[in-house]
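Below is a filled-in request sheet from our internal design queue. Each sheet records the structural input a requester submitted and the sequence that came back. We keep these sheets so that new team members can see what a complete request looks like end to end.

REQUESTER: design group, bay 2
PRIORITY: normal
MODE: inverse folding
CHAIN LENGTH: 258
BACKBONE (tokenized):
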């Protein structure tokens, strides 16, 4: 709530509310920040159309929505499946409670460089390759965890996994909204987020295999989730970095591919 008070309203929303002067001021402020001249043309709001959730599954959006749903589901299932049970798994392997807490703290700290690297890469190399790259590293790290035979190797593999998956989350949050046209952008994000929540509900049951002696099965499943998610992210075939976003469901930019 407090953070929201410091966020400016978008020019588009201001135009929709009839606050044209404030919309112009918002555009001018963005131009100043980017060291560019404000646009000279009149600000016009694109025509509004009635959209429904079903619009996400029509035409060109159907394939994109389904692929994104698989990406979000796979990442969420693997991430929560591993990290919701990892402390208990380490405790069951004989690690004392203090060491478990220290390890958990190190895994949390490992997420920071993963997030920071994702923030840099999405602007340097693009959204799509960044998402795919982090998911691929996550799949490899899950297998490295399986092959680890010493506490040091377990810690290194789990830290790499933690950094990779948070990098995947960060880049996915940047990539996903830009794949939906403006009228259904929030609906699209809501749908794939809901799919991720469903995966997070299922993941503790799947992750319980870590504690029942089926470590190989569990980690293989999670690695497969990350690999499939990476393949689906690549199959979307769209790079949005530095490109105008589609404004309507009929916008030809929906067909833009790399």
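RETURNED SEQUENCE:
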């Amino acid at each position: 709530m407090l953070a929201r008070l410091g966020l400016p309203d978008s020019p588009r929303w201001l135009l929709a509310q009839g606050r044209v002067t404030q919309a112009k001021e918002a555009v001018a402020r963005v131009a100043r920040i980017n060291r560019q001249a404000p646009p000279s043309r009149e600000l016009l709001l694109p025509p509004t159309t009635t959209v429904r959730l079903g619009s996400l599954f029509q035409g060109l959006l159907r394939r994109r929505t389904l692929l994104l749903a698989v990406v979000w589901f796979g990442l969420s299932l693997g991430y929560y499946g591993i990290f919701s049970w990892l402390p208990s798994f380490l405790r069951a392997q004989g690690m004392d409670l203090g060491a478990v807490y220290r390890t958990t703290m190190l895994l949390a700290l490992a997420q920071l460089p993963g997030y920071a690297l994702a923030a840099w890469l999405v602007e340097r190399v693009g959204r799509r390759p960044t998402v795919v790259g982090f998911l691929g590293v996550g799949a490899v790290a899950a297998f490295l965890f399986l092959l680890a035979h010493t506490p040091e190797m377990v810690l290194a593999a789990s830290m790499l996994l933690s950094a990779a998956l948070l990098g995947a989350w960060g880049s996915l949050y940047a990539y996903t909204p830009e794949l939906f046209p403006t009228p259904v952008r929030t609906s699209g994000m809501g749908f794939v987020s809901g799919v991720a929540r469903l995966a997070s509900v299922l993941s503790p049951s799947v992750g319980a295999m870590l504690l029942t002696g089926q470590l190989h099965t569990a980690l293989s499943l999670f690695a497969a989730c990350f690999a499939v998610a990476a393949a689906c992210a690549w199959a979307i075939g769209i790079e949005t970095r530095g490109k105008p976003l589609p404004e309507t469901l009929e916008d030809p930019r929906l067909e833009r591919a790399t």
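SHEET NOTES:
- The chain is about 70% helix and 0% strand.
- The mean pLDDT is 84.
FILED BY: M.R.
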